[in-house]
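re: ur question from earlier - yeah i can do the single chain one, its not a big deal. heres the input i used so u can compare w yours
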Amino acid sequence: MEKEHYMKVPLRWCVDKMDCWEALVDQWCSETWETSHNNTKERRGKMFGVPHHQGSVNLIQFGENWARHNKTEAPQMYDLYAMAHTASYKKVKAFSKSDLEHPENFTNISSHDKLVKYRDHGKARKGEDFNPSEGPIDPELVMIAGNGRPHGSIAIGDGLIRCPSTLRQIKEHQTSSCPEITRRPRPVELSIEADIHKEREAMQAAMAEKDKEIRELEERTTALVEAERARNDASTRAIYELFVSMCEKNGQVPPPMPVINVAGTNMSRNASHDPSTVEPSPGQPSPGETSQSHRASP
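and the output i got, formated as tokens:
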């Protein structure tokens, strides 16, 4: 829209303040605002998931609305940021540190990453007892966890938190024992990493399911083999008992029940074909003597 179009439809609270309305219109029609608007729109288009559930209010007003709706006190800024990126103030529950274990509950993976980074950097610098939900937000810690101001504002707080120091100044005050400050990953990088993690988990689950199927198949095969062996043993025993009864009727002594051994059968079969184990008939030379006589003959 052009300036003259805006000037024809002033907002009702600016009807008697047309000079203020004209100043706003001049700002909206300026090239600086247009460039900033397009850049912000492009960044929003690249974002994965819903930005937040605050609506048109900031975090402080979101906390006041939540406290009024639930008839309690407003939480600290860290909890408010987490709650505003989970659900609307009418539906969201009070933040719990266990919520960070479920990134899928947050509107976008970037907000979850910022909360986790702030918590981890706080524990690394202030001790394991550090609880981000207690007390106000530490601006320098937000700068460290978010790697400065990549888009003009620090990672947590939606512009409500101000840090007078730059990231370079904060680094100069650090000692060699302080943890390294890493860059803030882009939302698309976090999304790719999450997809890779999800794909890896799905692959591991599929492999575990395949291993389970293989184990079940082996167990079924073993059970079938054992059942077949039991049936064969029962059949052999029944045949032997029938043979024993026939021997008793004829007044004969039945031989002992044979024991079937596959390995023994193979060995006995091989042994029967070994010439060295064959006993010679009466009047015939042994295989060894025959070979010696052949070597002795001219």
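The longest helix spans residues 187-249. not sure if urs matches, ping me
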